[in-house]
Amino acid sequence: VKEGKVQTIFKLYKIGSKKGDTWTGSMGDGAMEYTATHCGVEEVKVTAGTYKDVLHVELKLRIPNTEADPGSLHFYIAPKIGMVKMESKSDAMTMSMEMTEFKEGK
Questions:
Q1: Average pLDDT, the chain
Q2: pTM of the entire predicted model
Q3: Which of 34, 36, 55, 73 is 20 to 30 Å from 90 by CA-CA measure?
Q4: Sign of CA dihedral 31, 37, 38, 39
Q5: What's the burial of 11, exposed, middle or buried (CB within 10 Å: 0-12/13-18/19+)?
Q6: HEC profile of the chain
């Protein structure tokens, strides 16, 4: 929230996109830019279970006017559930977070 308005941090998904489609944007008032790629759908196994038709989106990050490579973010989004896994990959490290439990609402 900035000046009483909700701000978009980044565009994780482009409605209507298909495998191989890309879109670009920036975050942090332009401090970081990204190219997002629709990587298709796949089966993903996490602690909470195995999910089919999971959308995989990669955000390749870059810092303008530098040679620095901040790496990429990978998001895995299951239908009717939401994000089940996220990975951050760079030369320095790889970090992964995943859903450990899911309970349907009543």
A1: 90
A2: 0.85
A3: 55
A4: negative
A5: middle
A6: CECCECCCCCCCCCCCCCCCCEEEEEECCCCEEEEEEEEEEEEEEECCEEEEEEEEEEEEEECCCCCCCCCEEEEEEECCCEEEEEEEECCCCEEEEECCCCCCCC
Which long-range CB contacts under 8 A does 84-92 form with residues at least 24 apart? Answer: 84/44, 84/46, 84/48, 84/51, 84/54, 85/44, 85/46
| Tokens (6 digits) for 78 | 């299951």
Q: What is the pLDDT of residues 53-70, one digit of tens each?
A: 999 999 999 988 888 778
CA separation for the pair 38, 93 (Å, rounded): 23
Strands of 72-78's sheet in order across:
22-27, 32-46, 49-62, 72-78, 82-89, 94-98
Reported residue count of the chain is 106
Nearest to 102 by CA among 83, 86, 87, 89: 83
Give the bridge partners for 53, in sequence order. none
Contact 97, 75 (CB under 8 A): no
